[in-house]
Amino acid sequence: MMRTMLLFWVLSLCTGLAQGVVLEGVGHANIRENNLDQARAEARQAAMRDLALQYQARVSTRDTMENGQLVGSRTELSAMAQVRNATIVDEYRSGNLLRVIVRAEMSDAKGKAGSCKAGQASGLRKRVAVTAFPITRPEQGGGAALDDAGEQLPRELVARLQQQGQLQVLGATSLQLFSNLPDAPTSQKNPASNQLTNVVQLARELGAQFVVAGVIRDIGLADPGAWGSSILDRMQRGIGMADTSRRFEAEVMVFDGFSGSPVFRQRFETSARWQPDGSGTGGFASAGFEGSEWGQAVEGVIAEMTAAVNNALACQPFMARITRVDGNRVTLASGATAGLRPGDELDLYRSQRYFDSLDGTPELSDTGVTLTLDNVHPDFSNGRIPTEGGLINVQRDDLAIIW
């Protein structure tokens, strides 16, 4: 018996040290001009992105093209994860569609800078509002298929974040936060009458802890002249002598909903061959759009955005706004949908501003008092503190935090 227990302990310890897990990812690609090798490489990249999303890592791919042919491909994972022994374990072709399944061992990177060790807050679902991603130069779209990218991209981001299940995601994709797009997010406030255009006000209205916003900075063709209607232009496109690629560059920003301060900011970019006839009539992120090379490249960027937002917020504490203080009972604006349970303990913080900087970032002061929940509902919860709330001056709109 002791021998069995010792063996189990050693195996458990080894597993904990390795922190590795074997996962399978699925990827699809279209076979063009009967080029099976290129389709297999594209499908493998898609499967690697699927693996990365399952393991919550950021992934990027770099392709090398010569005369319109894929001659080299490199897939990179962020410093937060490592991949080993990636192999294609299944391949299936149906017409011009190729599907591959890639099996790989995923593990946390060791000794890498920039990673965080999330505490109890990592098991809670923080509430996030996602707003529009306006295009800084709308004339670059050049058609109905791309004109709605500013709303369709964040909708796709909302869907992917909801599918991951780590966050409570609220869609506000028709709302534009920034009035000066080229300099965003330098100015977070908009003088317009709609109070939701301010980060803090939006977060308060929706009960969100974070606000995700973005800007599509470049969606232009690499060579607009390559799409001329002359016979020579058509011949050059047909033999691959013209640069028919389109760029895509977007910036994602995540703001703290209580202070309006940015907590994450990153640019994502890609470029791929553009096919107007294959872009579909349903618009950005539609089924037809995803069938084009450029659409698939953009889908890969959205997958990177999803993983980046999840990773950035995993390192943030969980904060709940106090909605009521009655004696020694405190009520919070978060409940079971966020993962809170009876018996959970949260530290109470006073939120305060000074009269000479009312528009500045509020300061949080630790009261040294812990709230213990004893009553949890889907959207709110309450519990007791060991003293009267008035004695420590805890009020509505103060915060309860789990680190």
From TrEMBL:
Boundaries of every Flagellar assembly protein T C-terminal domain copy: 327-401
- Domain named Flagellar assembly protein T N-terminal: which ranges? 22-107
Q: What is this protein called?
A: Flagellar assembly T-like protein
- The source organism is Marinobacter nauticus (strain ATCC 700491 / DSM 11845 / VT8)
Flagellar assembly protein T middle domain segment(s): 118-275
